[in-house]
Amino acid sequence: MICRLLAATALLLAAIPADAAKTLIVNANGYTMDSAGNLRRFSTLFVGDDGKVLAIMPRGTVEPKLVAGDFRLDAKGRTLIPGLIDAHGHIMALGLQLRSLDLTATTSLADAQTKIAAYAAKDTSAGWIRGGGWNQVSWGLGRMPTAAELDAAYAARPVWLSRVDGHAGWANTAALKVAGITKATKDPAGGRILRDAAGNPTGVLIDAAMDLVEKAAPPPSAGEREKALEAALAHLASVGLTGVHDMGSSAEDWALFRTFGDEGRLTLRITAYAAGMPAMEAISPLRPTPWLYNGRLKLQGIKLMADGALGSRGAWLLKPYSDEPGTRGLQFLDDAKMKNLFSRANYLGYQVAVHAIGDAANRQALDAFTEIRPAYSDKFRNRIEHAQVIDPADIPRFAELNIIASVQPTHATSDKAMAADRLGEARLTGAYAWATLRKAGVKLALGSDFPVEPANPFYGLHAAVTRQDRQNQPPGGWRPEDALTLQQAFAGFTTDAAWAGGQDGKAGQLTEGSFADFLLLDRDPFTIGPAELPQVVVEETWLDGKRVYVKPAK
Amino acid sequence: MICRLLAATALLLAAIPADAAKTLIVNANGYTMDSAGNLRRFSTLFVGDDGKVLAIMPRGTVEPKLVAGDFRLDAKGRTLIPGLIDAHGHIMALGLQLRSLDLTATTSLADAQTKIAAYAAKDTSAGWIRGGGWNQVSWGLGRMPTAAELDAAYAARPVWLSRVDGHAGWANTAALKVAGITKATKDPAGGRILRDAAGNPTGVLIDAAMDLVEKAAPPPSAGEREKALEAALAHLASVGLTGVHDMGSSAEDWALFRTFGDEGRLTLRITAYAAGMPAMEAISPLRPTPWLYNGRLKLQGIKLMADGALGSRGAWLLKPYSDEPGTRGLQFLDDAKMKNLFSRANYLGYQVAVHAIGDAANRQALDAFTEIRPAYSDKFRNRIEHAQVIDPADIPRFAELNIIASVQPTHATSDKAMAADRLGEARLTGAYAWATLRKAGVKLALGSDFPVEPANPFYGLHAAVTRQDRQNQPPGGWRPEDALTLQQAFAGFTTDAAWAGGQDGKAGQLTEGSFADFLLLDRDPFTIGPAELPQVVVEETWLDGKRVYVKPAK
Question: Are A331 and A187 within one domain?
Fold first, then answer.
């Protein structure tokens, strides 16, 4: 009788669709950090029908029994690691960039003109042609290009192309016209309109002058934004990222993330930080959202900006720039306003993620965290984004105040020459000081700041452990005393990033009960030489025990 | 062996929490419409652990077997009907009104002044005093009230009180001052500032002129809005509504609905219609959302406005108002704009719900639906909200074009005297013409327009079948030839409303596979006299097989 009742139950269970079955991966070369911070090895990964890890097991363990509908994969010895987490990226900006015209590989002005013409011919929208990545230096041009040269490639619609460093833009005549830029237009503060001998704009605009065109350009349509998010998700899965902390989500970004979540298309865990208070108020003004879509989306914190960037001398420094003694950079918030913003964020339950690049901005943020600490800061995992240039005296304060340093290893290797110019050698102590921060007991979270840098987290691992760029420069690494060990860097892109985003114990590790987010790799990052880390290829990306990316066959 | 495996499965099942158990309600006096439009009776309702109806069964059927953890309720003969659906309400406005000063029960200007003074004395916030529900007609005032009369009640802070129909607002001098409304202020398009003989504003603002004050009034805080939604949900459950078509959801409303959905606090099925294109663009610009939270929330359509209301002479009529021959009311959209809005909504997959009260507005909407029909209208359940005054020649066009008439029975019984004044007797043919519409083959959906009218759907059932107000006036009913049968009205608040909101077969009925949303009543609406319908008391409200409201013990 009991057995008959149970038989009826079994019939019901048989109706459960196959996508709710268990998954067993055997014969893997598995690595994970565990919650105690140890690197663990395993051969078998067993995933429940809820997409969570049931167990990891060493080689030689008896395989768990499977039933019809369950899935078994022989990894054939491939390396299996947790899906990686980028603690600082810009998802929509990446997607829009991926879908725009990419001129980074062009070798001459003529080559660029050909690519621009071909791209414009294929683009059937009525909108602007946008793109970037050009570099007159690598073209061997010896000067900036002109609007007339861009018109020669395409003149029918506005074309607007940013330089590889993002600090200059190249417009065609149609774009200049829509933006209303003429001989009479004055250079804005912090920007320059390049002009010919007669004073007419040549077509290239520098820094703040770029806004004149940006303001005139139509924003991407909802349909374009949807395609951009699709492109970003596909790209991020292909480089092995299963989690991103989106630094500065607008209400529009959030609505699109929700659309993808609602429609079951969100193949990434997005820890969202609202683009300031207005975005937070539009998205979830009462309190952070819960984790949505099985841990794939949450409005977790608020992104605030304390200063600008080092390259454009916007980073706010305690002492003048070495290469421009007239300026200390830009302070974005006065002390009272910063403190009020921090305490309001924490009061509502939001984590603070404050962009601070210069040593003055970092000190101001630490001072503000100190002031609000009695009420909030120990309960929150407040974070400083970039924490790029820190006065050595302030480094221990990160640990005392429990402030996460959210750093981007590839920035150091991209910035190394520029940083030395801006700061001077003496001030580099405390700049990109990852090992020093870690030794002081500071929690690090690692990221890329994509699309400013490539999203590929293996580039970040490489930069973190070698302090070299991907041309292996400089020999021995730049200020190698601040390099991380591979295990530290791996934690920075897994468990430590998860901790910074409030998914510790859930994401970034493969232990009982955690999300079964993992990668199958073409080589073992723990045994190859560090110089080879950028060459690691992600062959498969899995999220919640489901495959979301497979490397296309050649 | 098999039996042992099954036993392990049974152990797993035993761990399912009690709230996922089956529910059996026996000994009920059950009614439901079925998908074929028949009224069915039943005694037993059996609900699965997914909150959906497994079966309804007549008296004498052998009870299904339950297991430990399942729930059995003896209804003791009480009447059980599907949860009712209001096809036209304003959820946030109701909530804010429930928490603001309510003047609907005031019987004279003096009575209102006393209540305003008492409320203002109790309100300890620093903000505006807001409220509504006043009606100079029911006060027997014979004219609109003035700012000076409001100052006499309270002058220290701005006071802003909307008329019962929402189409006029009454400001005190402080509110006029903050809004900057003076003799020099021009009437905005679509609105009117009432003035004295000298041209000075008297304090009452009509339709679009209300925006002048609304723009100046501080919006309710996020915390106030949360409390308002809590209040609205509690009230709606207490009157037996398990579904509402929210007519004009803002992006802010939507974010709050999602917060409640995300937090598991949404005790109502909300079919949301965005407040125009800008709200749609902010909420879900690509396409309608899917049904969220197990059928509890969807952005389904777009609410558009073709004209104003009859009471304030904003309804757009084919011929002049009988009691003000100088005006035909207000046209809100030109023909091309209306057609473009309709076709854009349908193109994106959204249902159109267009407010049209006057016969000119109804004709314009029908003309626009005719124009877009080749592309869209048969695929969509486009609807005209109110459909209040229709030229008799246009009535068959609703059926030809498959346009739903979304009508509010209590409007007729509240408006009857005013409507005769505004329209004249001859033009009442085609006004509030529910039976005439139905006979012409038009689909009706019934609602209340709360908070303009009370949300209690039993008031609507009563008005629909009696054409009398709740004082049983006029004897025999007002234009009783347009009364509905109780079964027709019941369908209008259940299956027909569900159809209009895209939940047909799911909500509004208790048949296999539908949501187990139901009410236990203190009496049987199908056997009591129609005059007793407003006295029906909801004792329990259930949603998805879970109790969300129980009448408090006295």
Answer: no
